[in-house]
Structures are given as C-alpha cells and as structure tokens.
Amino acid sequence: MQRFFTEHLLHSQQTVTLEPAIAKHAIKVLRYDVGAVFELADPKHRVYQATVQTTDPLTVEIGPEITKNVELPIAVEVVCGVSKGDKAEWIVQKATELGAAKIGFFNAQWGTARWPAERIAKKMDRLATIAQNAAEQSHRNLVPEVTMYAKLSDVGVDAAVKLVAYEESAKQGEHAALVSALTPHPASLCVVFGPEGGISPAELALLRAHGFTPAGLGPRILRTETAPLYLLSAVSVLTELA
C-alpha cells in the first residue's frame, strides 16, 4: 500500500485536505479515485490509514492508526564526505531505505569534489526529496533529515556513541569497535565516512578530540558510497535480527 508523509497532525475520524504535491502524485500518477485507501504518516511519526473522500481538492478521512514501527532501535546518523558524481543521491536513497535517522555531508580536506556555498541550499532540497521518496517506498515512519555541515566539529554533538570509519583501522585488523559500540544498544550513533580520498590526519585528530573512535568495517576496503550502507546493514543485523 502506498505511503505518503503529510505536515498535518493526524487523528482517527478526522477529515484532511492534503498537500498539492501529494494530490498530484495520488491523482495524476496513481490515478486514485473516491474510496481509494493509502497510508499517511504525520510529523509525530504516527501512521494512519486514509480513504479518499474527494479528488479536487484531495480530501481524505483518517482511519485507524497503524501501529507497526519499522524504525531502527538506534537513531543512526551517517555523515559522509562530499563525493563526485551522483554518489550523494545514491547514499541518501539507500541509507533512507536502510533506516538512517539523519544523513549529513561535509566538504572534506581530501575530497575530489566540493559543494560551493551557493549550491548547497538547492542540493539539500534535491536530497530531501530523494529521502522522502525513499521513505515512502520503504514504509518508514519518518523521513530522515538531510543536512550539510559547515564544520566537522559540529558533527555528532548530541550522539551517545561516535565512530569514524577509518580504513587504516580495517587494514590493521580492528574489528571490535563497531560491535562494542552497539553493546548495549545506545540511544543514538553517529558515524563519519571519508570521501574517495579518505579521512585526512587532521580530520581524524579533530574527530578524536570530539569523542569519535576509529573503527574498521571488516577486512575489505569499501568505496565511499558502500561504507555507510554496510554500517546500517550491520546495525540492523546486530540490533534487529540478532
């Protein structure tokens, strides 16, 4: 069943006129008519069944709450160095599907690409749309926040546990930091990933000074767009399937 995210706070037996963007997709693309049923998630991460009452404008009657929660038991933020091409779009889409609560980016010292200040707002709008579409497709209870960090020192300020994926740790056979970080399960986890050029020594020193622990992600060296997805998959296995 299709899921949409609305800015309205919902409750059962309520009639709501939905946003134009939802109406356009529901009526023009999905061809919903009166009586069609879909799911609506609100800003408090509650999900309800909704039944179309009128199509122009699109009004729905809110039905029973759907209590199934598909969110990870840990609020995970992945923060990635800006990479070339469309890797940011790929990371946002797949990280959303895998349960990230927040997705951040930063211009890294050794990055092969940088986002100039005048392009960041437009880039964030584009990535936020990708996150919302992916959250709808994967039936998330929330849409992860997507943000750009001006300073690396601003990353993970409120996180309970902080890691930095560091390939030198992987090369040296370090494999305990991630598992230890999740035992017992913390309320939140922030993990930083470098771009294609990796994390610089200065960035590593800064992150260490702010409470980040270097961690390897297995014995293989992962691409910058693969590492966050490995991390989120590992968190899911260790907290949801173990």
Automatic annotation (TrEMBL):
UniProt keyword list: Cytoplasm, Methyltransferase, rRNA processing, S-adenosyl-L-methionine, Transferase
Gene Ontology biological process terms from the UniProt entry: rRNA base methylation
UniProt superkingdom: Bacteria
This protein's record includes keyword tRNA-binding: no
Signal sequence annotation: none
Main location: cytoplasm
EC number: 2.1.1.193
Annotated catalysed reactions: uridine(1498) in 16S rRNA + S-adenosyl-L-methionine = N(3)-methyluridine(1498) in 16S rRNA + S-adenosyl-L-homocysteine + H(+)
GO CC term (a single one): cytoplasm
Matches recorded under Pfam families: Methyltrans_RNA
Annotated SUPFAM superfamilies: alpha/beta knot, PUA domain-like
Annotated GO MF terms: rRNA (uridine-N3-)-methyltransferase activity
Domain Ribosomal RNA small subunit methyltransferase E methyltransferase positions: 71-235
Location(s), subcellular: Cytoplasm
Role description: Specifically methylates the N3 position of the uracil ring of uridine 1498 (m3U1498) in 16S rRNA. Acts on the fully assembled 30S ribosomal subunit.
Similarity comment text for this entry: Belongs to the RNA methyltransferase RsmE family.
PANTHER family: 16S RRNA (URACIL(1498)-N(3))-METHYLTRANSFERASE, RIBOSOMAL RNA SMALL SUBUNIT METHYLTRANSFERASE E
UniProt protein name: Ribosomal RNA small subunit methyltransferase E
